[in-house]
Write a structure and sequence with these properties.
homotetramer; 377 residues; alpha/beta; Rossmann fold; Dihydrodipicolinate Reductase, domain 2; 2 domains
Chain lengths: 377, 377, 377, 377
């Protein structure tokens, strides 16, 4: 089967997440990168593209130009990955969606709620797919956790504890030449949420994905600890879900000793589930009143979703890139199905999930401004 | 050196914490149990006392009677341990304090804020000591954590995450004959806080002890998940400390898979510290920008406080009972010193800490009633 | 019930294990230390005894003198704890056993196989009890592991991996004033085995206790890594058990980063069990083909032996001292029963276990001298 | 840069390791699979090839035919991956090597020592590269461990403990239709070693790679626990290295609860290192006398080799496939360099490492037959 022709918006030199998307798209051999608007000038884009083996005439300095030309090419891109800073997501996605080119877009969906709504409209109007890379949902044990909640293994969910601490912004590195830190702490490019937008939204999405619960309201206390920083770097949120479950979300970029400590714990009236991103091949399950069990990726007791998201037998760890690749792999399934006008059931994060995420960020910012008052979603 | 003559109020058959106090008082050989008002009738008290080897005439059915008589005996008790349900703490302590008998009292201090204030007054008026058994502060690694914060190893504290999940009240066991559950979910005996009073207050005290920070305000969302239960069984609190640090506290008695998951994480601008009660011989320390270090009880890098609270070399775990015994051991030091009219520096939880704990419970309950509004302390 | 009157041989100032025995004897309140030959001179013995609150005339400079006098006293010791260097175990035990005084003795049984055999004879001839403090067998999860093997939870045992690494002898500290290191590396006082006698024998005993398997033969490679050291400091042994199970034993005192890393793993044709002394409240159990389970002290799925060896609910860790105290507590049961001429079933290590341990050391030394040839036991 | 044209020998349907090699070759985009002798008949090979997107005329039923034809093609394969059962490694490699086509070959090198020696000769005579996929050496933390040993961080190595337990052969699944189990327990296809060849050799290679030590002699006790099995399923080996270090190696396929528990611990006179394959992003380092440190992939304290083998920042776990891909990636570097007649320094396992591995297997089998006598290497 021929690989799907992929383009990339953003992801030139120095970009972290662009490289991740490229590896993720390659792991299962379903995509081939053939074009890109990798940087904001044609020259830089060509330089980055050359290093990636792209033909010079498929390297663009402008995503609109790229969308227009690729749409006309016989072998033009079938899908694009958008891996720019957040404020570019909407305008870039729009150009491709309206030309029927599938979009795989990094999170959060957009830098503003207004843009998010416009992007939802654009996606709904388009025949093309829109996939948001909330990549943590691609981990096999996260899939298993979701299935176990759905099939009632922990009963009715009561308590949801989710957290995502990091430490890389402990010092004001954005003033010190770190490009990654620069745009992520810049409200023009990131939006009104700093830590809450960058990683709080991942934590929120993970809790939503696994529990299936809808957030009813939240009370958020956002803090900027580093002097001179323009956005929050620590996020405390109390959560109330439809149906009565309660939760807490903590995300931080100033917690020394934490690399990417995304961790979810869900407790119901019949059991509990615990998962940590840094040790992703494990899922702890306690049926209430029985010993705790250590479930493993593709191991004994693996659900269909765990198995289906695994490539190799248990005990040989799969990691972040494989979880990310699962999103790409399933996007490829949808793209192939779409050729025949079909849209099978899937678990991929959609533009609606993206809107929810931006609404979550927006609600956190609003709540925090009102001294952590409860805000409905 | 002769052991200190100890009495016990509460702690008859079926009591959990009474047995713990007895073991803790024995481990270092500094106390000898000689009298008790172990139950609410003379008969039951004598039965429990006989099993403990107490002389029949030193077993009382009433703590006031006991206080009166023991105070007159030549070899009467020098100190008493109060291990009753919370509402008895104040009236019992009062009787002994006013007769100059030292009091070692379980937490929380009292079941009401009014009682707590009266007990503070009683303790201040008395020549006798009052020690509150916030036993977790007796763990060697907790002592080390406190010292490291004080000596600046993690810089200025920014974020404090503390939690104490359990699962034993997942089902309505108080309706099913569990005496432990019965009084702990009964507002008459426990006070207005359920989970927040029973274990939330431990978590709060631990955070205070280690960081030295004063709580400025809190916003609490208390929940009762189990139908028919009369007190909260899950506690979510956002914390603001004097000086700008922020925190979260979660305690729960309905989180399946958690036995006694007390855990503290403190992050400053120079490093982080992480400790978990279930693995108490370890303390994780990350100087920002360096690899994480695993500090151990009495091991390499142990501070004076860690060494002083340890009995045996590293690698042979000490546990909950030894941490508890450290409180007793240090109380013995104070009692001996008090004989000479001295009062050395010490780290033992005082009646003031007890008042703070009850004020914390009270603030949580008030905040929660006002939809988690911020409440000053 | 009156505590049992206990004497101690050895355990003066600077001794590690004497202090452990004293705490262990106190935890459950069954013993009271009343006499001792704590040091080799009457003067030192009195000094140590005074610090422990012993009457001056019960502090002896000689264990024979002590045995003679205490045997005649109306309130003389009922039992003694022998906590001297190994070469004193036999002569000391003999004096008490022949006078009908119970003996609780540290391991290994003796410093030579000849002495071990004599001690067996002495114990068999005596009406008094002889208990060897292979204290690790007192841990609740070790008790559970033994029960699970017996009841077939892992099927027929095939593989036994046991290890006990430490690091405190990485440097030649015996030449540097460490008294602990001095006698433990001295063949006159320790016997022909260094590391193998000090901790290898613990590992061996633990494997025996849990699996119930008899060792058929072994091949041992003992090494002295530290220049000038007189005994082995690293032990590699291959094991063959009756019935066909195989195993490996590693103990070391030169493995940096290991405090007291005693660890046992047992695999049968139906499942596996894994336990580590430094985290003693956990036991890992895998029924073959099912997820691994984390069993806890006194927690869900606890066997009778686990529960019976626990004092407090799960989640509040018990440690080394409580495991040790279980040996004392059960010895107290036997001593009380012996007053009535009874000897109930028990799990305490006996003089026969001690002989086995010394035979194990002897076999290791012999095998190693013959280039790790197989030696029968 | 154009990807390197890759062929594959073996790896048709049902094969585990073929799929792993394909993913590993794709992750960094340096190879493109264009041809294959995926199965032993042309028909099956075409079927497997079609599923992989290979052109029909590049799917062969015979590796010799493939070698001949591809060598003549203008766009023939530049390299082949050999992923067959062991006994095919040599004949297949020979055909490609003699035609100047690079070979990337799975381990162990061959099924017999005689074949191994012939393959060494063939590789030495050829201008083409020969790379053996001892993939665990590709893990970033393994690279760091090797560098730390070399730079003296743990001093002179004294003790090496390595193990690789699995449990998938606990039952006689080879008699029950498992193709993986079938050939791995068949001496005709695997060679004289079962577990020792399949995973013992990985453990040995890892110890060699990290410590740099040469094995001087070994004493091996190989066991077949499962009735009717034709090769060993449990391996106990004592090791003596040049220079005096000692070690133990345990590998097992009948240890329930172990998935792929490869684990290495190395202790020197200045410190210790510990690494476990199932949690590969961590490396534990203890400088003797200091607290243990948790080093992470690409994290604080990462060496050049750790960084160079990492794709993404710390805290986002890389796994088995990325470690494997590092071997492919570095092979690509060599292949590209070879085009210019260069051969840069590298860490890839060579045909000599392969010979060492087969010699290790052979020595284990010989020793075991002689009742675990010491055998020189």
């Amino acid at each position: 089967m021929k690989p799907i022709r992929l383009g990339m918006i953003g992801g030139g030199n120095d970009a972290f997440i662009g490289g991740v998307h490229r590896i993720a798209s390659r792991i299962d051999g379903r995509f081939q990168l053939v074009a890109g608007a990798l940087s904001s000038t044609a020259e830089k884009s060509k330089a980055s593209g050359a290093a990636l083996g792209l033909a010079e005439d498929r390297c663009y300095g402008d995503f609109t130009e790229m969308a227009k030309r690729e749409a006309r090419l016989k072998d033009g891109v079938e899908a694009v990955a958008i891996v720019t800073p957040n404020h570019v997501h909407y305008p870039a996605a729009r150009e491709f969606l309206k030309r029927g080119i599938h979009v795989i877009c990094d999170k959060p969906l957009t830098s503003t709620l207004a843009d998010a709504k416009k992007l939802v409209a654009a996606a709904e109007k388009s025949d093309a797919l829109f996939v948001l890379t909330h990549n943590y949902t691609g981990y096999p044990m996260v899939r298993q956790a979701r299935e176990m909640v759905r099939q009632g293994d922990i009963g009715n969910v009561r308590v949801v504890q989710v957290e995502y601490p990091q430490d890389w912004l402990t010092d004001p590195v954005e003033a010190d030449g770190s490009k990654q830190a620069e745009w992520r702490t810049d409200p023009e490019r990131s939006g009104a949420g700093g830590c809450v937008g960058d990683i709080g939204t991942h934590a929120y999405n993970l809790a939503r994905f696994v529990t299936g619960l809808q957030l009813e309201s939240l009370a958020a206390d956002l803090t900027t600890f580093v002097e001179g920083r323009r956005l929050d770097d620590n996020v405390h949120v109390m959560l109330r879900f439809d149906g009565g479950a309660k939760g807490m979300l903590w995300s931080s970029q100033v917690a020394p000793g934490n690399e990417n400590g995304l961790r979810l714990r869900v407790y119901g009236d019949k059991g509990g589930l615990e998962w940590a991103q840094e040790d992703p091949n494990y899922l702890w399950f306690t049926p209430f009143g029985e010993p705790k069990r250590l479930l493993t990726r593709n191991g004994a007791g693996a659900t269909a979703g765990n198995q289906g998201a695994s490539r190799i037998p248990p005990g040989h760890p799969e990691g972040y890139l494989e979880g990310f690749a699962n999103i790409y792999n399933e996007a490829a399934d949808l793209i192939v199905a779409a050729r025949d006008g079909k849209m099978p059931d899937h678990l991929l994060p959609t533009v609606q999930d993206g809107l929810e995420g931006v609404a979550f960020i927006d609600a956190c910012v609003r709540s925090s401004k009102r001294d952590a008052a409860w805000v409905k979603l």
